[in-house]
């Protein structure tokens, strides 16, 4: 009836994410009873889940996992270690065996095989107009260990997000964040190839952080959730300062995902939900806004910033801009040299000389020389031996 007090509206709070997120559930009508005699069950309330907070069945993230595994199998097929290398790991796998540990300690293919199937190579993006590599690189992995680490993280993080927000928003968040990670990587790391889903994964982490901020009022234990999430993000970014880890892809993906989270993962306020799903005949004295003012401001600012970043980043990449020329210290964000490791990322190269069945190689990077017994060595075999010699 009109004029009812807002407190008369019954909204059940139902936790769906380990007690941290609270979800309103709509009050439905009591189902008809077979008997007309009054019983206590007539006061029963039936709850139905509100569509704005519905629980989605995840299928896209598992599909992404399958796609990444399929691409790794295809990469190993293209790699064909027995044909293109002198020695292989797990030779019983035949064509799918791995490159030697000295060449690839992650149990995976050679760099040339990754280039063939779409690894991010800035020179090819700029000089040969192969911009598609900015997307394909996020579906490739450098080895079994690399693949397992990323897919485990994707399952743990991605499935929960897809359950909460659906496949459309999480799919866009994942792909666009991965693209943003590729852009920042291409602007700083131009001497080596880059592969992996890490940029997209960091985008999901960034989205989780901005979702917590923009939907702050609907969280329980919000400070604990914020501290936990910040620690997880900080630890993962700190790992990126190790050698052979593309932390620029991590940073680019995180920044993109953080901004996109304010756009894609915004939720309506409970006051609006109460009025939206009020019983028939209820009339609110004061209309509640669907979103708070700060949510609208964050949405607009983030949308502008992410569009500017992606467009400007793409233009700079296609023009061959190297941001290391404008930031002399930025390379430390991806690798910090210590007494235990070097951050030298220069591509390896060797001088080769074939005499009969003897192949002599000299590494141009460290001047090491070695002779191999190998007749009519192919370019792929020479490249693989050179990689091992220069490590």
From TrEMBL:
<feature type="transmembrane region" description="Helical">
    <location>
        <begin position="297"/>
        <end position="318"/>
    </location>
</feature>
<dbReference type="Pfam" id="PF01694">
    <property type="entry name" value="Rhomboid"/>
</dbReference>
<comment type="function">
    <text>Serine protease involved in intramembrane proteolysis.</text>
</comment>
<keyword id="KW-0645">Protease</keyword>
<keyword id="KW-1133">Transmembrane helix</keyword>
<keyword id="KW-0720">Serine protease</keyword>
<feature type="domain" description="Peptidase S54 rhomboid">
    <location>
        <begin position="129"/>
        <end position="265"/>
    </location>
</feature>
<feature type="transmembrane region" description="Helical">
    <location>
        <begin position="223"/>
        <end position="242"/>
    </location>
</feature>
<dbReference type="GO" id="GO:0016020">
    <property type="term" value="C:membrane"/>
</dbReference>
<dbReference type="GO" id="GO:0004252">
    <property type="term" value="F:serine-type endopeptidase activity"/>
</dbReference>
<protein>
    <recommendedName>
        <fullName>RHOMBOID-like protein</fullName>
        <ecNumber>3.4.21.105</ecNumber>
    </recommendedName>
</protein>
<dbReference type="InterPro" id="IPR022764">
    <property type="entry name" value="Peptidase_S54_rhomboid_dom"/>
</dbReference>
<dbReference type="InterPro" id="IPR035952">
    <property type="entry name" value="Rhomboid-like_sf"/>
</dbReference>
<feature type="transmembrane region" description="Helical">
    <location>
        <begin position="248"/>
        <end position="266"/>
    </location>
</feature>
<keyword id="KW-0472">Membrane</keyword>
<feature type="transmembrane region" description="Helical">
    <location>
        <begin position="56"/>
        <end position="77"/>
    </location>
</feature>
<comment type="similarity">
    <text>Belongs to the peptidase S54 family.</text>
</comment>
<keyword id="KW-0378">Hydrolase</keyword>
<keyword id="KW-0812">Transmembrane</keyword>
<dbReference type="GO" id="GO:0006508">
    <property type="term" value="P:proteolysis"/>
</dbReference>
<dbReference type="InterPro" id="IPR002610">
    <property type="entry name" value="Peptidase_S54_rhomboid-like"/>
</dbReference>
<dbReference type="GO" id="GO:0005794">
    <property type="term" value="C:Golgi apparatus"/>
</dbReference>
<feature type="transmembrane region" description="Helical">
    <location>
        <begin position="195"/>
        <end position="216"/>
    </location>
</feature>
<feature type="transmembrane region" description="Helical">
    <location>
        <begin position="171"/>
        <end position="189"/>
    </location>
</feature>
<feature type="transmembrane region" description="Helical">
    <location>
        <begin position="138"/>
        <end position="159"/>
    </location>
</feature>
């Amino acid at each position: 009836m009109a004029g009812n007090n807002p407190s008369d509206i019954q909204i059940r709070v139902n936790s769906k994410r380990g007690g941290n997120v609270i979800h309103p559930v709509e009050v439905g009508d009591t189902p008809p009873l077979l008997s007309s005699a009054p019983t206590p069950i007539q006061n029963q309330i039936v709850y139905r889940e509100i569509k704005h907070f519905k629980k989605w069945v995840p299928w896209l993230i598992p599909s992404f996992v399958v796609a990444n595994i399929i691409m790794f199998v295809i990469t190993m097929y293209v790699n064909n270690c027995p044909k293109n290398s002198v020695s292989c790991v797990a030779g019983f796998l035949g064509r799918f065996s791995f490159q030697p540990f000295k060449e690839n300690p992650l149990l995976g293919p050679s760099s040339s095989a990754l280039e063939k199937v779409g690894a991010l190579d800035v020179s090819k993006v700029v000089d040969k107009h192969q911009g598609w590599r900015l997307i394909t690189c996020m579906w490739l992995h450098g080895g079994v260990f690399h693949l397992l680490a990323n897919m485990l993280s994707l399952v743990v993080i991605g499935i929960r997000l897809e359950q909460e927000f659906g496949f459309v928003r999480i799919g866009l968040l994942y792909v666009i964040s991965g693209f943003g990670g590729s852009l920042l990587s291409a602007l700083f790391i131009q001497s080596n190839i880059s592969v992996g889903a890490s940029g997209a994964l960091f985008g999901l982490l960034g989205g989780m952080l901005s979702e917590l901020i923009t939907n702050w009022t609907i969280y329980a234990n919000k400070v604990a959730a914020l501290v936990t999430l910040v620690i997880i993000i900080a630890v993962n970014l700190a790992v990126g300062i190790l050698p052979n880890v593309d932390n620029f892809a991590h940073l680019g993906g995180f920044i993109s995902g953080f901004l996109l989270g304010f756009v894609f993962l915004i939720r309506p306020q409970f006051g609006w939900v109460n009025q939206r799903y009020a019983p028939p005949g209820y009339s609110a004295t004061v209309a509640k806004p669907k979103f708070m003012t700060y949510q609208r401001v964050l949405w607009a600012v983030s949308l502008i910033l992410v569009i500017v970043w992606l467009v400007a980043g793409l233009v700079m990449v296609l023009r061959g801009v190297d941001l290391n020329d404008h930031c002399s210290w930025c390379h430390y964000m991806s690798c910090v040299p210590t007494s235990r490791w070097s951050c030298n990322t220069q591509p390896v190269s060797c001088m080769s000389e074939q005499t009969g069945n003897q192949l002599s190689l000299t590494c141009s990077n460290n001047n090491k020389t070695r002779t191999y017994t190998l007749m009519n060595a192919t370019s792929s075999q020479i490249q693989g031996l050179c990689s091992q010699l220069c490590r």
